[in-house]
Amino acid sequence: MFGSNQIVPALLGDYASQNGQTLASLIAERDVFLVFLRHFGCAFCREAVSDLVERRSAIEAQGTRLAFVHLGSEEKAQWFFKPYGLLDVPRFSDPEGRLYDEFGLVRWNWRQYLNIESVFRLLSVSLKGHRTSRPAEDIERMPGVFLIRGGEIRKAFRHKLVSDRPDYLALATAN
Question: What is the pTM of this model?
């Protein structure tokens, strides 16, 4: 299991956002609140992005930059993020899941997905308009959220269930 707060800098340099900025240079500039999504058809990911839209100004008011890592292509990312007004937020495509591995985000087992809590949460988020659609990415990859400062993970939330809903503001607050 993942046991380090250090991130391999060379790996971060391999990933560039939709605007060409590397993840390494983004992290070098300021604190980054890095959100890893499961797949673009995931209702829980849609809920998470909606929650982050509501909290974006509070996160950025602390001098922290919001950024996303996803498993899809840039074209799919544009389609996904546009309705949320997040096309300006740095996003990094990781179809091979190397960043997910580096941050300790594992593949789920059936109990992390097919459990009573996740089924009820799926019904709840669906009623709020966050519907599941056909996935095209790795549906078994678990999501996570990280506050990174100075190249080091300061706070982390690695989902135990696909339906977990972290407290984004608490995680984004630097100590």
Answer: 0.85
